[in-house]
Amino acid sequence: MDNSDSEPEDALHIGSNNDDGDLGEPPQKKKKVENVGGGLYNDFSARMMAKMGYKEGMGLGKAQQGRTEIVEASNQRGRRGLGLRIKGLEPSREVDWNFELEEIIEKEEISWIPKCGEPVPSIEIMRNWKVVGKKKLTIDDEIEFCDEDVLSAILKCKNVFDELEPEEMRRARTRSNPYETIRGAFFLNRAAVKMANMDSMLDDMFTSPKDANGKPILKPSDILFFADICAGPGGFSEYVLWRTKGDAKGFGMTLKGPCDFKLEDFFAGPPEMFEPHYGVGGIEGDGDIFNPKNQAEFVKFVKDNTDDKGVYFVMADGGFSVEGQENIQEILSKQLYLCQFLVAISILRPGGHFVCKLFDLFTPFSVGLVYLMYRIFDKVSICKPVTSRPANSERYIVCQGLRDDSDPVRQYMHEINLDLNRLLVPSSTQDVCHIVPMDELHADECFINYIYESNVKLGQMQISGLKKIQAFVQNGQLYETRQADVRRDCLKRWNLPDEVRKAPTKSNPKDKFESITEGSDVDFISHDIEDLSPDTLSNIKTPYNYRCYVVGNQERKRWYLLGCGRSHVFKWDGNPQSRWRKLDEIRIELPTDTLIEVEIVQEMKGEGTGQRRVTILHALDALFLYGKDVRSYAFSDRQIERLKKFVRCITKHTRNDLTKIHIPYIYRLEEVHQLFDRLEFRRVKGSSNPRLCYCPPDRDDGRCFLPSGLCIVKIVKDPWTMALSKSANQKYFYNTLTKESTFSCPLNSMANCSDCKKSSYLWKFEEGVKIHPNQAFSANPKKISKDNFLDYIQMLSPR
User: Fold this and answer.
1) Fold assignment, 509-715+750-796
2) Domain map (residue ranges) of the chain
3) 63-73 burial, b for 16+ CB within 10 Å, e for fewer?
4) Is 357 noted as a catalytic residue in this protein?
5) If I label 69, which of 30, 128, 271, 680 is the partner at 20 to 30 A Cα–Cα?
6) Burial category of 276 from C-beta neighbours within 10 Å (exposed 0-12, middle 13-18, buried 19 and up)
7) Of 215, 213, 177, 182, which Cα lies nearest the Cα of 196?
8) What letter does residue 636 receive in the DSSP assignment?
9) Among 672, 660, 618, which Cα is nearest to 643's?
10) 2 is catalytic
11) What is the pLDDT of residue 246?
12) Contact residues for 582 (Cβ-Cβ < 8 A; gap 6+)
């Protein structure tokens, strides 16, 4: 029981071992004696040591070989052995660093090499430039393009860390770099933030390309095609896909294995819009960029998927471990430099851009490569973004505006790569040493001065960064206090939210649907399209208000598909009494927050017994595309442009396991006769008699399907209507209420998604509906047949 009134003495008494209840005197400590050496020993210890032969000031042991000094506290770091001292990295709290001398860069400036106005040399001239000589694996004498003292200091600073444990180096680097805590922000890795950093430095040159007058070169219906090579796991691409919000399509090639693209970790951008390809064998290839056959296959793949035009920009971030050989990283990376450059200029469209990671630029081979790029691009720069650690030799070459006459350089680089594949083997003592003569380089004073000054500037930055890490290794108490402020300011400057990386949550489809629609009007989803009959046909007052497309699902069944990321796709028939169900009958991948209306169609290729049936998804309309609400858009913008662009972005020709998605061919109602010209009888596998098939005009492979109806969509919103001016031979808009007419499209005249659904008609191609003269049955007069329909449309059209 606690007694708060008890005195301290009582408490002490209760806790003592004094049986008589009184506090006794504390026991006396044995008297200590002080010896000459300054140690304190009691009498017993001193007598015992004297018997064993100990003499003051002498060491222990038979030969008095023991140490006489005290054992000091260990300053061991990491896994260093006891007593290990690394020269130049001796622990000391006296070591300091002057943070005021290190400027935090507020705004990064880009410095371009002055533009080269000379024509590109012919392949015959460049072949004479190449020099094959003795293989060289040292860099300390490469002072042609850098100050000798700077190069010597770089190598000396690097050598200090040769014996340092990597983990100890990493900790000191993390504490010393003011930009370190930016890390990968909410992206996959630091590479993504580097790309955001450089994109911002270059006025969004990559994610929002502009012409010479500063105007965007992409129309809303255009896809921003890009390529990412030697860049697994894909941080560069994740940033681009996040920034462009579903308006881009990427192609990637990297080495298969641990460094492969990790699309499953693309949390910020839609991985469905990125398609890896690994050269020979496609997705089954090895991704070795040194292999000319892999290069050719990847180039063909990109060209085939960009209408033979190529991509708008290429990113390359290749690198490999050079542990123990850091000083010659540039020499070991020469073929990697070359092949990244070669593939890039092979797939870029004229005017396209390129960014690639490099390391040192001290050797004639590396400088020669930069010179070749300088000759075929409008502008070239060597830059080091602040997200690139100051103590490493990393830098980036940025090339803007590929010229039309670049093919000789592409061919020359291809031939150099063939030579390197032959020479860069262990048994060879030869190497390609020069690809541009020294006198050719020095003849261009602007170029050579730029390279020299760039190497000196970046070299001095690296020296300072290495010395700072050295100080932080020696003094574990040093810390870069500006990191938090620098992170906040940089993310703001690059327009990146200051968020942590987190995996997307897997919500159930009902919650996801309610989340993206935000409780807005979606009742039209449950609206059944009205059948077109002789009674409702008269509701069509003018053909110019309508578009139409052929329906291919034999049950005329439509579904709404909800994308929750990758293969997490759910379907719903629009019935309020029904539930969302997992899409199991086919496999597709949709970006998260996507809601589209579709039908599942069996398309056929070939005829008779050799015919092959393929399940195709026809995308009929769009409500949300990767979170973008397109319900208010006009039909032509929503379905023909946005949805068509979206489908092309997510189509992956290398993935045979995915069901292909197509957009139905859209006809103007006044031109509907063209549709009937695409109908023909074909022998269908499994049917004894030929069947009437529809062959879409946009199918290059000759595929067809059995038509089940025609969906007629009204694209003009009441009270507006469209008509044709005979005098001007031009369509115009007319308001039936205000009697206003105009040739320009009024903003409130176009039907949105809800309007289209509620005012559409479905003309069912059923028994008694004759749409082809070779059909065996007679037309049912109570139903609409082809002749009735075309006659009515012709009557509405002015002659």
Assistant:
1) D-amino Acid Aminotransferase; Chain A, domain 1 (3.30.470)
2) 111-212+222-493, 509-715+750-796
3) eeeeeeeeeee
4) yes
5) 30
6) buried
7) 182
8) I
9) 618
10) no
11) 92
12) 569, 570, 571
CA distances from residue 393 to 144, 315, 360, 361 in whole angstroms, order as listed: 18, 19, 6, 9
pLDDT digits (tens, 9 = 90+) for 407-459: 999 999 999 999 999 999 999 999 999 999 999 999 999 999 999 999 999 99
Q: Whole-angstrom Cα distance, residue 260 to residue 719?
A: 57
- C-alpha 117/C-alpha 220 separation (Å) is 34
Considering the four listed CATH numbers 2.60.40.10, 1.10.3720.10, 3.40.50.12760, 3.90.180.10, the one that applies to the domain covering 111-212+222-493 is 3.40.50.12760
Q: Which of 317, 360, 431, 755 is catalytic?
A: 317
How far is it, in rounded angstroms, from Cα 84 to Cα 133? 43
The two beta strands, 224-229 and 248-253, are: parallel
pTM (predicted TM-score): 0.88
Q: Which residue, 709, 715, 721, is CA-closest to 756?
A: 715
* Tally of residues, the chain: 799
Q: Across-strand partners of 397?
A: 356, 382
Widest distance between CA atoms in the chain = 133
Report the C-alpha gap between 105 and 122 in whole angstroms: 43
Pick the catalytic residue from 199, 228, 334, 357: 357
- The CA-atom distances, in angstroms, between 631 and each of 128, 436, 626, 752, 754 are 62, 57, 13, 6, 7
For tokens 């979170």, the residue is 627
Model pLDDT for residues 278-335, shown as the tens digit of each residue: 999 999 999 999 999 999 999 999 999 999 999 999 999 999 888 888 899 999 999 9
Judge whether 35 and 42 are in contact, CB under 8 Å: no
Note the pLDDT of residue 248: 97
The question of whether 286 is a catalytic residue gets the answer: no
Sign of the CA dihedral with 636 first, then 640, 641, and 642 last: positive
Which residues is 618 bridged to in the sheet? 599, 662
* DSSP H or E run through 624: strand 612-625
